[in-house]
Amino acid sequence: MRERHLPLLVLLALGTLASASAPTAPAFKLITHPDNPVSTLKSAQVAAFFLKKDTTWEDGALVLPVDLSEGSPVRVAFSQSVLHKSVNAVEAYWQQRIFSGRDVPPTRRASEEEVLAYVREHRNAIGYVSISAPESGVKVISLSD
Amino acid sequence: MTFKTRSRARGRWLSRTAARAVLSLALVAGSAQAVEVGEALSLHGFGTAGLGRSWRNDYLYANTEGSGQLLEAFLLISVRPTERLSLSTQFGFEGEKSRLEWAFGEWTFSDALKLRAGRSKLPFGLSREIMHVGTLRPFLTLPGSIYGPTELGAVSYNGVGLTGHVLTGSWALEYDAYAGRMDLEEISPLDLLEGEEPELEPLAAMGARLTVLPPVEGLRLMASGYGGRSLESIEPGDDAPVEASLGVGFSAEYLNERWLARAEYALSVDEQGEVAHAGYAELAYLFAGHWQPAVRLELSRTEASGLEGPPSLSRHRDIAVGLNYWFNRHFVLKLALHNVLGNRLAYPGDLSPELLEEQGLASRTYLGTFGAQFTF
Questions:
Q1: Chain B residues with CB-CB distance to A54 below 8 A
Q2: Which of B118, B143, B177, B294 is the most exposed place for a label (fewest CB within 10 A)?
Q3: Per-residue pLDDT band at B323 (split at 50, 70, 90)
Q4: Per-residue pLDDT reduced to its tens digit, B70-102
Q5: Cβ neighbours for B317, distance < 8 A, ≥ 6 positions apart
């Protein structure tokens, strides 16, 4: 009997551990590789890149969006102002896409340093970091409505 | 213990161990992050552990003895060997059974055109492709009259398909078109009364789904349909007129930070001319960040000339109320009560003409469910 209910108890413990409060949201800046000719992007275009509704740059190269992990306050700001969704809603969107076998979400990095490193290494990458993050080896692009 | 018994026992042990391995993987993954192995390979998973007790009839996974439980876990593996090619597969471990849910390759020509081949999830309605993903819905189980073992009961198709999406201004369109073999998994109490064992009915079918995303954040509208012919009825030299089975569905969904509203209607016609109408509407509201009350009304009715047995065997109405607690987007506890009228989906586990004659059939069923669902 005890063994039968073990998975339920494991899941209960799991959920208790995973519960977390939402942090406040600071500003962010968009970054690409210095060789990327783009210097301005519309907000809707960036949203299409990060939701993988548009997957190519103008030259046909595959866009490589890189996200921060779910708990990041910078991601909260980015999701609200560019994707016009909460991180929760974005996660629900990706659950739908992943489990119907349609797509996988952008690659994720746990820290801004890792996002910066990823963008420096990938010519077609696009990411976002906090306003105060260093800009060496990346290009900051402006966001228009 | 015979070899067959030992083999079956080993199979059960393997399935249980695999299900527990996926649950453990969820624990290790902290229930929030997929396991990303490099950029080309990703692992995701989801599962359910639920208990249920029904009164008067068995319904969904619950029975009147109170021993009904739902334990299922799924593991999805996606590989992208090149920029344009992706390979995906999903394994399921349900109770004591394990199975390959789907496995297909997809070649991307562009965002508007992708070609799939293999065994793919059936793109029908809002939830056919994500039937077991509990964190995408307010109740532990989906409405049985559309997503259960009914005339619309195919889960996947073996064949080829096209899919893609087009952005047109602030509107977006997604489409799916497919052709291949699909296996209908209908379990009908009328068939059980006639002594027929539930079995898969293979269908040679073609179908499509169109999804419209209007410029209203969170709104989705869908039309789905398929038509086909039973492979068992196709015989060489047979000049008899082709009798087709078909399924059609219309769906609408609205989601925002707090509200979830869904409604679907489906119609199916099988080769014997049996027509089934099914539909549901559900509403849920998230408050205080974690709590979510939910309600659902589901109706279905099967019509055909010559249907024998009590009329309740071809009807179904389920009014459900639920209360969920979301720890986060990936983990939820769900409690629900169902009041069911009709025996299309709720009937005794040992349904037989003798039982019907001796005890009659209770047309009302009550059900209580409690469970946890997760994704990673």
A1: 111, 167
A2: B177
A3: very high
A4: 999 999 999 999 989 999 999 999 877 888 999
A5: B297, B298, B299, B300, B340, B341, B342
Distance of alpha carbon B58 from alpha carbon B355, whole angstroms: 14
Rounded to two decimals, the pTM is 0.84
d(CA B346, CA B52): 14
Of B49, B108, B136, the CB nearest to A7: B49
Residue closest to B371 by CA, chosen among B329, B327, B320, B332:
B332
Of all residues in chain B, the one with the smallest CA distance to A83 is B217
Task: Give the pairing of strands B97-110 and B85-94.
Answer: antiparallel
What is the spatial distance between Cα B106 and Cα B123, in angstroms, rounded to a whole number?
15
* Distance in angstroms (rounded) separating the CA atoms of residues B21 and B191: 38
Q: Do B366 and B23 meet the contact criterion of CB atoms below 8 Å apart? A: no
Residues of A in contact with B329 (CB under 8 A): 88, 91-92, 95
pLDDT of residue A6: 56
CA gap A143, A23 in Å, rounded:
24
Domains and CATH numbers, chain A: 25-144 (3.40.190.10)
Q: In what order do the strands lie in the sheet with A107-109?
A: A40-42, A139-144, A28-32, A125-130, A64-68, A107-109
Q: How far is CA B132 from the centre of its chain?
A: 6
Q: What is the torsional sign of CA A129, A131, A134, A139? A: positive
Closest chain B CA to residue A13: B27
Please work out, in degrees rounded to the nearest 5, the angle formed at the alpha carbon of residue B90 by the alpha carbons of B88 and B94.
175
Rounded distance, CA A139 to CA A32, Å? 5
Rounded to an integer, what distance in angstroms lies between the CA atom of residue B68 and that of residue B145? 20
Bridge partners of B229, per DSSP, are: B204
A7, A84, A95 ranked by CB distance to B135: nearest = A95
- CA B165, CA B212: separation in Å to the nearest integer? 10
Note the ipTM here.
0.82
Token pair recorded at residue B193: 């009364």
| Type of residue numbered A80 | Q
What is the Cα–Cα distance from B205 to B179, expressed in whole angstroms?
6
Show the tokens assigned to B62: 């619950």
- Which residue, among B345, B340, B348, B344, has the nearest Cα to B366 in the 3D structure? B340
Tokens describing residue B191: 């068939």
